[in-house]
Write the structure tokens for this entry.
Amino acid sequence: MPSDGLPRLIRAAPKPRRPWPEPPLKPMSVYYKAVLLDKDAIRRAIKRIAHEIVERNGGVDDLVIVGIRRRGVPLAKRIADTIAQMEECNVPIGALDITLYRDDFQNVLKHPQVGKTEIKEDITNRVVVLVDDVLFTGRTIRAALDELIDFGRPKKIQLAVLVDRGHRELPIKADYVGKNVPTSENEMVEVHLEEIDGDDEVLLAEKAS
């Protein structure tokens, strides 16, 4: 009791304010609209691309095939194997991981998973065929070109893709295309390959509104 005999109201110390928890991120829902390529169609597209590569370059001399991780790598191997069967000779293959060469590396990739780049052949004065699954804005290919030049100065660099879906942001065009697919920006093209996904198919999907 205070000296003046009057009671005093004792206030509890205010509790520190806790920020509201961020709402959990909702998984992006998509629905699948069509099968663009099934297993047989993918096989035929790869075979056609292999024939076009040999024809355009007058054979396989000085040819090196380099896949962009992830799904560009098994596609590159399939193309190289098809050419080997046709021409009865092995074609060198390599793999590029372009993570550190992306122009959005600092802004978009918070926890980048950097893969391994494997190019054992000297690519100077060679014909290099870059292989990817889907050609979209062109920024992946730009990053791949930047990295490739760090390994040498090729005589030519050509581009092979399984699907070209348009919407380019850079002046990049594929030399060999399995299938051209006009798409809206709200749509997505998903490539599934047996080596990674357990099955071969290319699907057209759309983000649910």
About this structure: The helical segments are 39-56, 72-87, 105-108, 139-149, 194-197. The chain has five helices and eight strands. The mean pLDDT is 86. The beta strands are 30-37, 63-68, 93-96, 127-135, 156-164, 176-180, 187-192, 201-207.
